Amino acid sequence: MFQSFEDLSDPSCGAPHAALLRAELGRLGLDGFLIPRADAHQGEYVPPHDCRLQWLTGFTGSAGVAAVLDDQAAIFVDGRYTIQVREQVDMAVFPAAHLITDPVTAWLASRLKPGQKLGVDAMLHTVREVRRLRKVCETAGAELVTLDENPIDAIWIDRPEPPLGKVKLYPLELAGKASEGKIAEIQAALSEKKADACVLTQPDSIAWLLNIRGSDVTHTPLPLSFATVPSTGKPSLYIDSRKLSNSVRDALSELTDLAEPGEFMEGLKALGRDGASVMIDPSLAGIGIADAISDAGGSLIEAQDPVLLPKAVKNDVELKGAREAHIRDAAAYIKFLCWFDEEAPKGELDEIGVAEKLEEFRRDTGVLKDISFDTISGAGPNGAICHYRVSHSSNLKIPMGKPFLIDSGAQFEDGTTDITRTLAVGDVTADMKRHYTLVLKGHIAISTARFPEGTTGAQLDTLARIDLWQAGLDFDHGTGHGVGAYLSVHEGPQRIAKTGTAPLKPGMILSNEPGYYPAGEYGIRIENLEIVTEARDIAGGERPMLGFETITLVPMDLRLVDVTLLTDKERSWLNRYHDRVRGEIGPLVGAKERIWLEQATKTI
């Protein structure tokens, strides 16, 4: 199994670990400390070695920060985790607040006292974050202290070792573009910005640029590393040499100057001493990186990581791989759905068993490299927890008469998949069907959207919500995220969300996943992946418009659809989609599954 169902959270750790931290802060002369859910790469996926927020509080979500002062503390999470945080964290020690509407900066502003010193790890807080924190501290008459060593590391007795996943070369027939061409493209971008070099902190940016993959973090083929790319000459790659076989080392030596991670800060200082103008992404680079360059005499150019956009706009080979991966995944998924419909009415299935069976069907393809994230297998009230992670202690039997939510994905060498389906188990109520259909209407609105060049995800986000809003409902997460090419299942800069400011471009892959989650009852989410298509003319229109190509080919559950709430166009879309699923995936499954599929995709 790629997924573990161990109980990773322990709320009882909060009080003793907070006491240990406060004692260590006192020894360092600090009055407070911030603990983000982050590592030095500022990525979403953090190895156990760097899960300091989890160690301190018990919280296992993918975004959050804790603040510890000498007399009080709090934990801040976003809307995906408002239920989960209360189950995993001792609220008496770390009261929960909303990361967006009640941010840590506001909490600190009302509590910091003149003369106090607030510490932060210089590699775990970005340039942009530190600016906000410094302003808060200055207003309060306090001081922000950036630390080279994290005080938690001194008290974390059983801290795991850093990962040493082996690095593999990603073949050109899957990457679609040689590393030399990618490096040249980035160097041209640096020259346009009059930058002598840039710093890359995101492992997926480095993996894409150098056509390598690794296994340092769960479910995502990332080799943790740093890199600097000069405007001319070889990039420098800072990576633990124990991850490299002789053949990989030889290949990377042709492209880069290899160095150990411990040499990274000295490399930055050397750029500074040379008086280089160095591009950093202030939303991704730790303040320690910026300080190392500027303190040594270099100048900083703040700009978006130059790899993000080229990586997000997939080339033809990457798009071909994505389509093929989704067809393969759909066949496995339809086998799973057929099995589920046969077994669920017996009343014996539970969340873990379902997640295990879905992984088994994917493994049966013979080419599954990993799942792309821990499967969200949510029965009843657990389905209302947006990013629920099932464990042995939380595992529920799947009840009759309620929707069951399952959000999962696969890592194949030719593509990364991510799909959510909400399934009826037994007879469901009219309200459940209404909620599902309102979500479906939002999903269809995104899938059928046509929009001009320059449109951002924020402009499209409302389409997914408008029918829910008119019913007085909403969901507290973005509508869609970018997806990588055998890389991260969550990829920027593109997203469909209120905060999605990046223009959508042809070749980008995004999820389309509106939802609705009545707390304590059930969850509904419908997710397909979409490719942004080239602008095309519309009959009678004045300008060509971009659109979406759906590449996820798995039936929606018609037992949850209230057809009376669909417009003729929406019903037509659903029928066409199901015709396509039946036509493209039907020949790839067995006779039993084809019979099931005929019924699951019947015309409505």
UniProtKB/TrEMBL annotation:
The keyword Protease applies. The keyword Metal-binding applies. Residues 322-534 form the Peptidase M24 domain. InterPro entries: Creatin/AminoP/Spt16_N, Creatinase/aminopeptidase-like, Creatinase_N, Pept_M24, Pept_M24B, Peptidase_M24_C, X-Pro_aminopeptidase_P. Residues 544-604 form the Peptidase M24 C-terminal domain. Residues 21-149 form the Creatinase N-terminal domain. One of its GO terms (molecular function) is aminopeptidase activity. Gene3D superfamilies: Creatinase/methionine aminopeptidase superfamily, Creatinase/prolidase N-terminal domain. Keywords: Aminopeptidase, Hydrolase, Metal-binding, Protease. Belongs to the peptidase M24B family. This is Aminopeptidase P family protein. It comes from Roseibium porphyridii. The lineage of its organism: Bacteria, Pseudomonadati, Pseudomonadota, Alphaproteobacteria, Hyphomicrobiales.
